[in-house]
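ugh finaly. both done.
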Amino acid sequence: MDTASRAEVLMFGKALLASEMLDEQSLKQRLGVQDVKLKSVRRVRDGLWDRLLITYRGASQNCDGEPFCPRVRSVADLRQLAAAFTGEISPAHAVWVSKSQTVHEQALNDQLRVAVLVP
């Protein structure tokens, strides 16, 4: 695992954080659904954070001295790191940041739409 893996985890984390700021009506609008089961959505979000933490930890092994490689002990730590992450690794990564954000938002929307369908 490497710098790119950590960056992808943090970008997905940013998308996840942004989705958590939406109220129920905004979430319905974003997902294009008429009803939202908030308990199911929370469960999916919690599971995503758990998987992101595992992936980030794996990508952070032996990365001392590399960009954005602080150790995280918990989902709370990862949430803080994702919130602060700008994606500004280098000028060459500017295009990646915007594309990555779009891809992760679409993937997250798909996951949350599934959550809406689950009782």
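ok and the 2nd:
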Amino acid sequence: MQTLWNDLRYGARILLKRPTLSAIAIIALALSIGANTAIFSAINTLLLRPLPVKDIDRLVFSIALREGFDPFGSSFLEYAAYRDRSHSFVSSGVATQRSFNLIGQGEPEHVRGATVMADYLTTLGVKPVLGRVFSAEEDHPGGPPTALISYALWQRRFGGSPIVLGQSLNLDGTTCR
């Protein structure tokens, strides 16, 4: 125990003798620890922790590879042909990421979202906190435009109020329910 105490006193004397060098060393250690923590947190969130979906081990992600096209973009016709000819899957869903301009009920806001097929959320086993998932009647060209908002948007824009159910949203000039 005496050796540890002597080492601590010696270290403190050296640090006080050269304050600039000590400050540089402490800042370098702090930055290194901070960067290491950030990288581990990102890896833990993205790779190690499973996604919060039902039957994650049975989930399949497909990519359509075509020369000269976005490898992650598939047309609805490709998806429909794949879905109708598949006998191996219980359900399937497709989503295309996009951005929307949310107009009305406060300041206009640019929000990220997705255009999804009705069975997308049920395939993932995800249910909304309030309301319902999309119905089959809404899942065809000319069907009524319907929107499902994220929990974060619900809290930020609508204060978490359940009154938002059934209200209309204006997304890119289209009125959605």
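summary for the 2nd one i guess: DSSP finds five helices and four strands in the chain.
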